Amino acid sequence: MRPLHEQSVVITGASSGIGRRTAIEFAKRGAQVTLAARNDSALKEVASEIRRDGGKAHVVVTDVAEWPQVERLAEAAAAHYGRIDTWVNNAGVSVYAHFEDLLVEEIDRIIRVDLLGQIYGAKAALPYMRKQGEGTIINVASELGVRGAPLQSIYCAAKHGVKGFTEALRLELDHENSGVRTTLILPGATNTPFFAHSRSKLGAKASPPGIVYEPEAVAEAIVFAAEHPRRDIFVGVSAKSYDWLQRLSPAMADQMSLMAGASIEKQKSHEPDNGRDTLFEPWTGHGAERGDYPGRTSSWYTKVFEHHPALKVAALGAVAGTFAAGLLGLARRNGNGHETGNGWRLRG
Ligand SMILES: NC(=O)c1ccc[n+]([C@@H]2O[C@H](COP(=O)([O-])OP(=O)(O)OC[C@H]3O[C@@H](n4cnc5c(N)ncnc54)[C@H](OP(=O)(O)O)[C@@H]3O)[C@@H](O)[C@H]2O)c1
Predict the structure, then answer these.
(1) pLDDT at 321
(2) Which CATH architecture group holds 4-307?
């Protein structure tokens, strides 16, 4: 993998939130960035901010749900910078609603942007990366890519799809020793304009449940993955807890979600919905990085354990060892054995 200051990086969804912060962080480290989304004026704002600080940015207005536009984005980035080292599939939309309240065109659109948009991105980037013999495709999924949640059924379907697609693609590319890496980023709730941008049929603006992180925390993981090959990175210990709970007992995860209506009620804010969304048309005017739910700017869990998976294995080993020692101690105390000169021997 080339160092960031030698990389050409494409970021979709760069007009707002996580993509906007990620583009700025890449540029700060010397990467040449291509910014893609639909809101032309917001993209130009990000590009000017980057250039003002001495960075290099190129804007390509793109709707990721349209294959010809994504193909053109790759052509434009490669023509402008001569190569594509990292491609970040980040653009996303959602509709907060009970499944039966969704219109078919809303269902189609979420899948087209959140799932097909990422598949198109990989398809467009790969020919350039193959020719170079190296590259990294970073797909931004969500904690809802490992565990479903109510009111976002199609978004969850799309993010589970992104996870499955990324796994399958990784195996094909690794089998061939292609030199092209794939990383799945799984953020928890993040303080971006996502909740204002999402269409809501709840009679209220959507809001993030649980612990919230600032866009910097996700950008940090994406930028890290562009230089350090990682299979997947959960952003925030709460996102990883979703995964652990789901692996341990999906039924228990269901019960915890349903307890006191937790996962339904916590996704509704006390504010009325703004009546605007980005499902079919971009937000107009200025883009923004942050939303209305301030959170933590960094996750120590992600920086220690997700960036260094060997530490995660060691920590899990230590937890398992402590648990086993605890069980042994319990068995001893329950007296179904007797002590010998060499220690404890269990009987019976
Ligand atoms: N915020 C969270 O809590 C959270 C948690 C987990 C995962 N994520 C994921 O993080 C990613 C970024 O979301 P965010 O939180 O930063 O939300 P955001 O602020 O609403 O940003 C979404 C971005 O996607 C772009 N976009 C939407 N539809 C597009 C289309 N058809 N073609 C091209 N670009 C499009 C938007 O730009 P235009 O409108 O200008 O096109 C915008 O730049 C998404 O994939 C989201 O699912 C977010």
Answers:
(1) 75
(2) 3-Layer(aba) Sandwich (3.40)
Cα first-last separation, the chain: 58
Ligand 1 site: residues with CB under 6 angstroms? 12-13, 15-19, 37-39, 42, 62-65, 90-93, 113, 140, 142, 187, 189-190, 192-194, 197, 208, 278, 282-283
How far apart, in whole angstroms, are the C-alpha atoms of residue 148 and residue 124?
29
pLDDT tens figures, 52-103: 999 999 999 999 999 999 999 999 999 999 999 999 999 999 999 999 999 9
Report the candidate in 169, 187, 80 with the shortest Cα–Cα distance to residue 121. Answer: 169
Whether 343 has a pLDDT exceeding 50, the answer reads: no
Q: Measured in angstroms, how far is the CA atom of residue 131 from the centroid of ligand 1?
A: 30
pLDDT at 328: 74
Spacing, Cα 17 to ligand 1 middle (Å)? 7
**155 is annotated as an active-site residue:** yes
CB-count exposure of residue 246 (10 Å: 0-12, 13-18, 19+): middle
Say what the pLDDT of residue 347 is: 32
Ligand 1 atom nearest to 14, measured from its CA? 43
Buried b (16+ CB within 10 A) or exposed e, 313-323: eeeeeeeeeee
Phi-psi region for residue 220, left (φ > 0), alpha (ψ -120 to 50) or beta?
alpha
Give the ligand 1 atom nearest the CA of 218: 10
Catalytic-role residue among 120, 128, 155, 301 = 155
Q: 205 C-alpha vs ligand 1 centroid, how far in Å?
A: 17
* Segment among 100-109, 131-140, 201-210 with least mean pLDDT: 201-210
Q: Tell me what the mean pLDDT of segment 322-338 comes to.
A: 67
pLDDT at 266 over 80: yes
Q: Atom 20 of ligand 1 has which residue's CA nearest to it?
A: 194
